[in-house]
């Protein structure tokens, strides 16, 4: 399964409100630039939650039992993130890349049928 999603400023704002993580680096250009980024960066847990949601939307009869993810690099707002899922042994491997192929994160889900 492969799914591309544009990471928008509005989605990050909504996540910040819902999660309580309103750190300026995720929401404000000036703060992101001061931290060395050209644009605000996505919350890591937003990316992980999105990975979960995309998987479950395509596999509605499965529940996620466990998950883990390692973040390689920040994902900037207005970037297209590509989520790829592949079975590996008893897990589902998640690979998150930018549209140009740069690796953002890699993780694994264990799932069971509901």
Strand order of the largest sheet: 1-3-4-5-2
Work out the strand percent: 35-45%
Low-confidence segments? none
The largest β sheet comes out as: 5 strands, antiparallel
Mean pLDDT, rounded to whole units?
A: 95
Rg measurement, Å? 14 Å
Separation, N- and C-terminal Cα atoms: 20 Å
Compressed to H and E, one letter per element, the order equals: EHHHEEEE
What is the approximate shape? globular
Number of helices: 3
Query: How many extended strands?
Result: 5
What class do helices, strands and sheet pairing give? Answer: alpha+beta
Work out the helicity level: 25-40%
Write up this protein.
It is a single chain. The chain is α+β, with helices and mostly antiparallel strands and about 110 residues long. The chain is about 30% helix and about 40% strand. It has helices spanning about 10-20, 30-35, 45-60, and strands spanning about 1-5, 60-70, 80-90, 90-100, 105-114. The chain has a five-stranded antiparallel β-sheet, covered by helices on one side. It is globular and about 45 Å long. The two termini are about 20 Å apart.
């Amino acid at each position: 399964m492969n799914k591309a999603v544009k990471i928008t400023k509005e989605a990050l704002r909504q996540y910040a409100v819902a999660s309580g993580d309103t750190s300026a680096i995720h929401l404000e250009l000036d703060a992101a630039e001061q931290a060395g980024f050209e644009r605000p960066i996505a919350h890591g847990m937003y990316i992980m939650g999105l990975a979960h949601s995309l998987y479950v939307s395509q596999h509605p009869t499965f529940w996620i039992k466990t998950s883990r993810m390692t973040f390689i690099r920040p994902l900037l707002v207005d970037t297209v993130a590509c989520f790829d899922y592949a079975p590996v042994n008893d897990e589902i491997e998640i690979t998150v890349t930018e549209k140009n192929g740069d690796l953002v994160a890699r993780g694994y889900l264990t799932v069971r049928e509901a």
